[in-house]
Amino acid sequence: xxKVNLESDYIGLxxxxxxxxxxxxxxRSTILKMIENGDILLNDKPFKPSTKGxxxxxxxxxxxxxxxxxxxxxxxxxxxxxxxxxxMVVNKPKGMVVHPACGNYSKTLVNGLLYxxxxxxxxxxxxxxxxxxxxxxxxxxxxxxAKSEEAMxxxxxxxxxxxxxxxxxxxxxxxxxxxxxxxNVPIARSKLDRKKMAxxxxxxxxxxxxxxxxxxxxxxxxxxxLETGRTHQIRVHFEYIDxxxxxxxxxxxxxxxxxxxxxxxxxxxxxxxxxxxxWCEFTSELPQYFTDFLNxxxxxx
Length: 301
Fold this sequence. Notes:
This protein has helices at 15-22, 28-37, 109-116, 149-160, 233-240, 288-299, and strands spanning 2-5, 40-42, 58-61, 79-83, 87-92, 122-123, 126-127, 130-131, 140-146, 165-173, 180-184, 187-189, 197-199, 207-216, 219-226, 264-272, 279-283. The mean pLDDT is 87. The chain contains 6 helices and 17 strands. 19% of the residues lie in helices and 29% in strands. The relative contact order is 0.13. By secondary structure, it is an alpha+beta fold. Among the domains are: 2-61, RNA-binding S4 domain (Structural Genomics Hypothetical 15.5 Kd Protein In mrcA-pckA Intergenic Region, Chain A, Roll); 167-265 and 292-299, Pseudouridine synthase (2-Layer Sandwich).
């Protein structure tokens, strides 16, 4: 049984919709069936799917049989940087969605992992490859994958405690006077557009540290070190300080350059191995499209 205190992100939102975010591995139809069967309760009572969340609400999600993952295994030639019996580190390419969803039921990272993995850990009542964290479709770089329930618990706890190391490289608009900085403003789901995140004083703590790596005319290359891992955190934070990511079609306020999406790469990931306790750290090179554009900027400096 799982008890969930309703977060500020979901207050005022229909609970059946909020639950699709709270239980991302459950389909909308499965969530509706769970509500109907009383497997999910609101303040220990049954409720209608259309009920809107209020401050102080508590959702109780009872144990249910694991839901099979109705997704095809596909050989996507994943770039596996490292793997052992417990964990895998994958270098995700641009344009690959992590989880299957409406309109993306094939060629996702999950499809590729189903091909690569012999066994699937059961997480949150669903049999699935052990995705510990996500990066956006158009963000490239390293992801941790758990290959057992025990590894999932360990890596998830490390993320929760902010003891993992996650470094990103981003190209942003504008030129910084400072060489480094710390963005510490909370983030919540946007009240105007539920598909977006936004800076919100009632949101969750979000901290991004950055260091200037190189300055170009009108652009800056930065290294970002995350202390927290909120959805779209880097993209939202840099938009907030008026240095949106180059190529960001959602949070960028300027004309989008090219069709590559945001210039954001998860370069380094580090964690304590869930079985041995030893520190593991991996890095990856910038993708070709990223370095090509940086070379173009060098020519116009």
